[in-house]
Write a structure and sequence with these properties.
Pfam families: adh_short_C2 (PF13561). By secondary structure, the protein is α/β, with parallel strands linked by helices. The protein contains 11 helices and 6 strands. The chain has a 6-stranded parallel beta sheet, with helices on both faces. Bound molecules: 1,4-dihydronicotinamide adenine dinucleotide.
């Protein structure tokens, strides 16, 4: 059900690769709530993914941008401003990648070239996007930026590998940039810490099925789906959450504050 929560708002959504992507669902939900969208992803992802299908469905232009490339990001903001006839009201950063994870290199043996690349794509990119947005004055007053993160940025999940460090950094950048952008233009910046979700990025993590079923058993409400995450992002882009900024917001069915659940104890007793 739609409530017109984003009527008249304009936003840029990074990271819709295919129908499973959290960004894909968020774009659909924002559109349903009345927003106008510009979609963007890395050129290679545009070739491999199915973003044009989404673009047609929600009537959004697709502007390629590799988040590690400042010229690409500048071009994205310039073109988005042309398209909308002004700045944007919200941005979703839904981007993550680790070559160490992809190549199954254990955390203690990480290759630092891969680490640098992973941090650049998964964390520093948020800083780059915000820095260029500020320079181009591309986000309207009271705009809202959300980046997606995972609890491994705060607690140890061994197979999450160097993505955990990336998420810790991402959350820190949201907090710090949130201060400066708040003072400058009342722009709010938050991270949403989502339950494990079956997507291309998610499934790359070793033992992902175990992750999902453990989290499902641990969370009083069960795991949050990608569609539910999209709803939460809509609320954060809406005017109903104007004073929320610099937060890491758990969207995980209660997982993060559960020490142990009865379901997990019963599972352990079976052993
Ligand atoms: P996904 O694989 O659908 O999305 C990841 C996106 O990052 C892709 O669209 C990919 O093209 C994009 N990307 C990678 N390198 C890029 C680059 N250089 N420039 C621009 N874009 C680039 O997977 P998902 O799960 O939807 O991931 C979205 C976000 O949600 C990520 O930050 C991820 O870490 C986070 N997240 C995912 C969870 C999960 O279990 N799937 C749980 C918690 C957070």
């Amino acid at each position: 059900m739609a409530y017109n929560l984003l009527k008249g708002k304009k936003g840029i959504i990074f990271g819709a690769l295919d129908e499973n992507s959290i960004a894909w669902k968020t774009a659909q939900h924002c559109y349903a709530e009345g927003a106008e969208i510009v979609l963007t992803n890395a050129p290679i992802a545009l070739r491999m993914g199915t973003i044009n299908k989404l673009a047609e469905e929600i009537n959004a232009p697709v502007i390629p941008a590799d988040v590690t490339n400042a010229d690409d990001i500048t071009n994205l903001f310039v073109k988005a401003k042309e398209h909308f006839g002004g700045g944007v009201d919200f941005i979703l950063h839904s981007i993550g990648m680790s070559i160490n994870v992809r190549k199954n290199i254990p955390y203690t043996e990480n290759n630092y070239d891969f680490t640098h690349k992973g941090l650049d794509i998964s964390a520093i990119s948020l800083h780059r996007v915000l820095q260029i947005a500020m320079k181009e004055d591309a986000i309207n007053e009271w705009g809202s930026v959300v980046a997606l993160t995972y609890i491994a940025g705060q607690r140890v999940f061994p197979s999450y590998n160097d993505m955990a460090d990336g998420k810790a950094m991402l959350e820190s950048i949201a907090r710090n940039f949130g201060y400066f952008y708040g003072v400058e233009k009342k722009v709010r910046i938050n991270t949403v810490s989502q339950s494990p979700t079956r997507t291309t990025a998610g499934s790359g993590v070793k033992g992902f099925d175990g992750f999902i079923s453990y989290a499902e058993k641990m969370s009083p409400l069960g795991n949050a789906s990608a569609d539910q995450c999209a709803d939460y992002c809509v609320s954060l882009f809406s005017d109903l959450t104007k004073m929320v900024t610099m937060q890491n917001l758990f969207h995980d069915g209660g997982f993060s504050f559960t020490g142990v659940s009865q379901a997990v104890i019963e599972q352990m007793e079976k052993e």
